[in-house]
Specification:
The chain has 327 residues and is an alpha/beta fold. The protein has helices at residues 23-40, 65-76, 97-106, 121-125, 144-155, 185-196, 225-229, 243-246, 253-260, 264-269, 289-292, 299-317, and strands at residues 54-59, 80-85, 111-116, 132-138, 174-178, 200-204, 220-222, 234-237, 274-276. The strands form 2 sheets. A 5-stranded parallel beta sheet has the order 7-6-5-8-9. It has a 4-stranded parallel beta sheet with strand order 2-1-3-4.
Length: 327
């Protein structure tokens, strides 16, 4: 038998964001995800933990990685899965989110995973359905499962000066988040999660992409990449949405890469630096192609951990306790 997960429950009924999750709950999810990761290495990558549970993936916003990751997680747990896309649905005919929610509720589903372009849409959904709601990204608000998979990936990095990472103690760890902070739900969720576990955070990007009074989040802020990478253990580059250039937030992709893109020379100057990215990567913009493929990039580990983390969240919010993975 594998080592059992501590028989604990999350204090929250839904996962709407990490702003209200404390370190204890985050660590419970991460410990459970570590157990779930063992399932993904088996010849038969399936356990019956959510047999009989119906999960609806309600995606009003285009997504490939997150949607596939959630669907894989649900199927690995033997849940019944229903996929809903706004395109070609009643939404395109004028149906409101409230109407969609009430129709889903009438179908007696257990869990709804929602991605929506409007901040607060998952919170709104909880008013109209009795099932569990999981936020898969809402506007520029939060993307909690992305942050959780990032935390799990960081905990797996072998950094000699931070031996307690594996125990999800990030005290003294220096993490720099680079790019468009203002419009990034990934950045917000990571700030909440990293701070809860004790990490020191630096935000770096163009001033036009930095929120007003961002220092109140308890982070260091700079618009100089070299300063952000000095003493940094993990650098997390955020995807630049190319439409931002037409809004005049930065002069050109080339200039952005020259000022804020991580290149091979940065890895050479900082030999212990590890690279992360939520994907998809704009090669030659946030990261040079050589950096994406470098051995110190953990981007593909993030993808694998995404399935494990979403399995853990689904399991715990569905009432799971103890070992979910069996032999």
């Amino acid at each position: 038998m594998t080592e059992e997960i501590a028989i604990e429950q999350l204090k929250h009924r839904h996962l709407l964001g990490l702003a209200d999750y404390d370190a204890e709950e985050i660590r419970l999810i991460l410990r459970t995800a570590r157990e779930m990761r063992t399932v993904l290495d088996r010849p038969i990558k399936r356990v019956p933990s959510l047999r009989g549970v119906t999960v609806v993936n309600l995606f009003f916003e285009a997504s490939t990685r997150t949607r596939i990751s959630f669907e894989l997680a649900e199927k690995r747990l033997s849940a019944d899965v229903v996929n809903f896309s706004a395109s070609g649905s009643s939404v395109s005919k004028g149906e409101t989110l409230k109407d969609t929610a009430q129709n889903i509720e009438a179908m007696k589903t257990d869990v709804v995973v929602i991605r929506h372009e409007s901040p607060g849409a998952p919170h709104f959904l909880t008013r109209w359905i009795d099932g569990v709601v999981i936020n898969a990204g809402d506007g520029a608000h939060e993307h909690p499962t992305q942050a959780l998979l990032d935390l799990l990936t960081i905990a797996e990095i072998d950094i000699a000066s931070h031996p307690r990472l594996a125990e999800f103690d990030f005290s003294g760890l220096s993490v720099s988040i680079l790019g468009d902070i203002t419009h990034s739900r990934v950045a917000r969720s990571n700030i909440y999660g990293l701070k809860a576990l004790g990490a020191e955070i630096t935000l770096c990007g163009p001033r036009t992409m930095m929120p007003v009074e961002v220092e109140q989040l308890g982070v260091r802020v700079t618009d100089r990449l070299d300063e952000a990478l000095e003493g940094c253990d993990v650098a997390m580059a955020l995807r630049i949405q190319l439409e931002r250039q037409s809004a005049g937030l930065f002069p050109s992709l080339r200039e952005y890469h020259n000022r804020f893109g991580i290149r091979l020379e940065h890895l050479e100057r900082h030999p212990d630096l590890r690279i992360m990215h939520p994907g998809p990567v704009n090669r030659g913009v946030e990261l040079a192609s050589e950096v994406v493929d470098h051995e110190r990039s953990v981007i593909l580990d993030q993808v694998t951990n995404g399935v494990a983390v979403r399995m853990a969240v689904l399991y715990l919010l569905s009432g799971g306790s103890g070992s979910a993975v069996g032999k």
